[in-house]
Amino acid sequence: MEDVRNGTVSIFAFVEALGGVHHVSVREHRTAVDWAEEIKYLVDTMYPDAEKIVLVMDNLNTHKPASLYKRYPPEEARRITKKLEIHYTPKHGSWLDIAEIELNVMTRQCLSRRIAEIGLLRRELSAWETERNTLAAKVNWHFRTSDARTKLSSLYPTFTTAS
After folding, report:
1. Within 13 Å of residue 160, how many CA atoms lie on the same side as its CB?
2. 3-state secondary structure 125-161
3. What is the CB-side half-sphere exposure of residue 156 using CA atoms within 13 A?
4. DSSP secondary structure string for all residues of the chain
5. Predicted structure pTM score
6. Does position 101 have pLDDT exceeding 60, yes or no?
7. What are the φ and ψ backbone dihedral angles of 25, each rounded to 5 degrees?
8. Which of 110, 107, 138 is nearest to 123 (CA)?
9. For the chain, how big is the Rg over CA atoms in Å?
């Protein structure tokens, strides 16, 4: 039997690792406008009183402040951008991204089967999000300099000594 893929969706996830706050949304696409609308929700709904929101995320081409300008007037895009401090994970470094770790948890706990209808997927993920928030599920993630030297050794320069 062959598995037939009848479409895909994009899942956006925000995780406050130490606060145990989770937000998940399902979009039909993964465009610059989709990302911009999610970021506006983060800034204006989730953390309206925050002076600065630190984002650690992958380096996808739509995950840029320029995407805000594609969706909102310049003054609005600038207002949102000023509240953000963005840090990108390195290429092939999704294991550094807490949201990616949370997506793996979500996959194991909620998405281990095919869900054929987007409305059902939204309801399932909403229930999962509610449970994670009720538990205030935190991410206990540690990465020390010594771990980096081992895991990222290919990125460090090598030096040869003259004899």
Report:
1. 2
2. HHHHHHHHHHHCCCCCCCCCHHHHHHHCHHHCCCCCC
3. 11
4. ---------EEEEEEETTTTEEEEEEES---HHHHHHHHHHIIIII-TT-S-EEEEE---TT-SHHHHHHHS-HHHHHHHHHTEEEEEPPTT-GGG-HHHHHHHHHHHHT-SS----HHHHHHHHHHHHHHHHHHT--------HHHHHHHTGGGS-------
5. 0.76
6. yes
7. -140, 155
8. 110
9. 19
> Pick the residue with more confidence: 113 or 152?
113
How crowded is residue 98: how many other Cβ atoms within 10 Å of its Cβ?
18
Query: What is the average pLDDT value for the chain, to the nearest integer?
Result: 84
Residue type at position 136: A
* Residue keyed to tokens 């996830």: 13
Exposure class string for 126-139: b at 16+ Cβ within 10 A, else e: eebbeebeeeeeee
pLDDT at 3: 47
For residue 161, what pLDDT band results from cuts at 50, 70 and 90?
confident
